[in-house]
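Input record (Table S2, row 327):
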Amino acid sequence: MASQMLRPRTILSTFATSSQRLTPLVNARWSSHSPLGTTLTTRKPVTINTIQSLYRKNEPITVITAHDFPSAHVADHAGMDIILVGDSLAMVAMGMDDTSEVLLDEMILHCKSVARATKGAFTVGDLPMGSYEISPEQALASAIRVIKEGRVKAIKLEGGKDMAPTIAKITGAGIPVLAHIGLTPQRQNALGGFRVQGKTRSSALRFLEDALAVQEAGAFATVVEAVPAEVAELVTKKLSIPTIGIGAGNGCSGQVLVQVDMLGNFPPGRFLPKFVKKFGNVWEESLRAIEQYKDEVKSRAYPAPEHTYPMTKEAFEDFAKAVKDRE
Ligand code: KIV
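Output record (3-methyl-2-oxobutanoic acid complex):
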């Protein structure tokens, strides 16, 4: 009896009319606090081997950022190969001005949410500024936290030749590293802002050296940000690991975009880099829906009877009488 009383179906059956009892109620939810997750994904989980196999087949590798459970969930269901918990989190999810402010603990918290949602894609978490530059040992300690606590499968860090010993240290401990070269936003102050890299012979040669160094250090792939397409393509051809381009043209081995940007989930007037294509207009749709909700609450059009829980007329009359008897 006690266990029956805990089951929503049993409770509903007690009060519902016979026609309501015919409704399939097994999955009825009684609260807005129900878990978001489903297990619709049937594909085999992407591993580092899958990524290498895509690269060998010359099939573009698809990467997108996610910063929480819902954004990871939708990206996973869409079949992305890699989901990156980028430190763009700082701006697009936490409202900070740049990535220098976000903390390792905050990155780990968001990695956890993304990892919970991701059943198919390979997950990568960014090491934020300050969590890896002091020494390879510091970097390894941070990387271990991102894997153990954040539950993602690999880490990303910014930097080329100078970061090669750090990448070697982390990969040597069995943690896959996605490198990030070209424009490295965490160093924007040293670069004089968000500037395209590799535009001259010497800068492009430095970029090539960075690419070769991170490859030699054991990175499984490298993000290539804001580099002329021709340079990115030629360097991609010189490497034996995939390049994941962002603002680096179509000659890379794959592409990455920040989800909030490509979904158009931001207010009009926000600056967008040239390379971002808006594949949707989530902001407009969200605004429309929330405004309609507001209007319907104000006019009492919502909630309608179909949004309420049923009770038999007799039970209600019984209750109303009890209320009256108390007066
Ligand atoms: O932080 C981030 O989202 C990134 C991608 C843009 C590559 O580094």
